[in-house]
Amino acid sequence: MYQTYPVYIPSARYAKENDEIELWRESYKINKECKAFIDENASRAYHAHNLPEFITELTDTFGLERSMYVIARSIVGADWDKRYYNDARNRAELFSFRDMKEAAQLRENGKDPYRTADNTTSLCSNVHPVMLNDIFRFMMKMEQDQVNSPQADIEHDNEHDEGVDR
Fold this sequence. Notes:
- By secondary structure, this protein is an all-alpha fold.
- It is globular.
- It has one domain.
- Helices cover 67% and strands 0% of the residues.
- The protein is built from nine helices and no strands.
């Protein structure tokens, strides 16, 4: 459904300054739907031992990148929470969360980030970290499998063939 709609990574402030606010709004709306899907279904799937089916439905609906992005926001946003595995935290931190960095800087300067920066902490899931770890690690494996797939090799090779007649 949304798997082909790109994730808009920059902050709303950046989007506004660069005349891309509609792209940000649409991506934010889809991110909220993705987060809601995770919050409503992850715990049930985890306890019923149906994580693979849940993750397939999640990624078929929202795409692997967006699904990982939304969960990564929860992991990065809980830097105090040591229940997240190092490999999951390290991968999550590869995403850019400019809005979270802007909010942290505002807090350090004694300003209220919710009045002046993106309130995208609303994208952080309330699902238990143990469950998010398992879901995120499963998606990390899916991501790795995509990188190692024969199709990925063909696409990578084609990048180097630009301008070459076939």
